[in-house]
Amino acid sequence: MRKPFIAGNWKMFKTTAEAVKFAEDFLKLYEKDDVRVAICAPFTQLAALKKAFEGTGVAIGAQNMHFADNGAFTGEISADMLAEIGVNYCIIGHSERRQYFGETDESVNKKLHQAFAHDIVPILCVGETLEQRDAGREYDVVREQLVRDLEGLSEIQMRHMTIAYEPIWAIGTGRTASPEQANEMCGAIRDIVEELYDTDISCDVTIQYGGSVKPANATELMNMPEIDGALVGGASLKPEEFIQIVNF
């Protein structure tokens, strides 16, 4: 039985002081132990959040990392640096990284390998644009991303993988895929994993939905059989909203 996994993606929001205040307020409300919870925050907040959530069951994630061990990559952060802090997860391949910073399936694949090499669990993001969906190509687009992104990953690594289906047309737009649309694509992703690996691994892999998830739609989305959790954007910035999603 896959344990639900709710992860907040704070994107480029909050100072470190605001992040610590969030942790204090959230922990006053948090009592669940049957749901995995993580906060994926900007690099500057990770050490403080690790300390604030120590021993609570709330994990910490980064939003990006470089695929090299070290080097002349000004402005980048390595997996080793994240591991030293005790980061548990890292979002890799988010559509905003692909769109604004030129990330490709090739670089995403390298980052996935690097994350696993440092015992950081990746949250791999895949999804289609509105134009691709309207053209009926959403399945082909997501399948191509997965084939390229997962190349060379072992069966053991795949068992620990989290995949987040984030239709690009639903990220930060207020427009959400219907529960049926989200469930259908999460099921298709599971089928693709089965094709690339085997049935056991496809049953083990955690598949989240992301894209304008909020308290009003969380329960319906999370009750879908193929959806194992959510990657939450704006609604993860307020403790009282994020806890409602965690308590779906």
Largest sheet: 8 strands, parallel, barrel
Q: Determine the CATH superfamily.
A: Aldolase class I
The radius of gyration over CA amounts to: 17 Å
Number of helices: 12
CATH C-level class is Alpha Beta
Cα end-to-end separation: 18 Å
Biggest β-sheet: strands ordered side by side in the sheet: 1-2-3-4-5-6-7-8
Uncertain runs: none
Percent helix = 40-55%
Strand content: 15-25%
CATH architectural name: Alpha-Beta Barrel
Q: State the oligomer.
A: single chain
Number of self-contained structural domains: 1
Number of strands: 8
Order of helices and strands: EHEHEHEHHEHHHEHHEHEH
Features:
248 residues; alpha/beta; TIM Barrel; 15% strand; 8 strands; 8-stranded parallel barrel; 45% helix
